[in-house]
Amino acid sequence: MKEEDISGKAVSKVYFSSARALKWKYDDSMPGKLERLLREIGLANYFSPKEWVAVKTHFGSEGAHRVVRPVFLRKVVEGLKSIGVRPCVVDTVRIKGLDYLDVANQNGINHLSVGAPVVLADGLYGKDNIMVKAGEILGEIAVASLIHDIPAMVVCSHVKGHINSGYAGAIKNVAMGGVSSSHRHCGWKCGRGAMHTIGEGDLVWDSEKCELCYQCAEVCPLDAIVFEEGDELVWDGNTCWRCGRCVRVCQSEAITMPGDDERFLRSLAEAAKAVLSTFEANKVLYVNFLTEIQPECDCMPMADVPVIQDKGILVSDDIVAIEQASIDILKKSVPLPESAMAGENVPSDGDILLALHKKDYIIQVVEAERLGLGATNYDVVEI
Fold this sequence. Notes:
Layout: E1 2-4, E2 10-18, H1 30-41, E3 52-56, H2 70-82, E4 86-91, H3 97-106, H4 111-114, E5 118-120, E6 129-135, E7 139-144, H5 145-149, E8 152-158, E9 160-162, E10 166-168, H6 170-177, H7 193-197, E11 204-205, H8 215-219, E12 225-228, E13 232-235, H9 245-249, E14 255-256, H10 261-276, E15 284-290, E16 312-316, H11 319-330, H12 352-357, H13 362-370, E17 378-382
Helix pairs in contact: 1-2, 6-10, 10-13, 11-13
């Protein structure tokens, strides 16, 4: 839903409900507020009876439990069913497919809890995809076949920090979550790994600093790191997609890996455009959950305590506007006590996630606007 300001620039609507509950009634609860947000935006304006709709979310990891809660996914599913559409809850493979479905179930996401089939969008092996033109950085990218083929989508994103992108919301969810981990013929270099490896170098291991805790090997999703005879790190550079998890978990700073943050963030926007290009206009909605805002991605094998208090839920049909609105809300926050940012110096603009990860994450939003995915101009409609 877009209007124009007095200068003629497009202004998108972002609907928002606060996480605060000020009355002892269901309508003031977050599930109740989500129902009202979905009614206000008008799901029937976007989706048709009997149409199949993917509810895209992140299933999390074993140990990473701060995903979009099943109760919220169910409310989205119920809202879609109320207008006669056929929803399914989807994500793409990050670990072996059957294991990932087990993880989803551990985190409470299954057919019974969400009220719709829970599906891997790129198949059990993560290789069911279609190459889509992506742009000057990526060239082509392997979009998950279900997301490519399905006519409509609701993107439910858990807003949080991220080791590579600094901030992770709808753009990251669409870009990395709508793309397969691997392609049947050209492997991970045509899939999600293509974004990670842009401008990346080789892993460097300092054996003198290494404490042999083996966290790097344990956290690697591709088993690209092994320790021979227990004390010699061996890295498979052909398998590694340079996601940076090993660097993040190395508390002795024994592992380094050069990267190009700007190109990575720009590639996120480019991949998001490729995924969204498979949908007709006005067939994708975005729901950002500013809840349990932890430092890390939900793909890590743990979840730290939140660094920012719960803020609420935002809904929009503009991916750029909802990201900008989410960021603006977070920048008005203060670090939570006893969190990773407690007692840390936060910049005068209040940007906690920037202070936490030192990543100029706004690049992904600016690039998404440049690519025509939406507008940073927005009006908030508070429900």
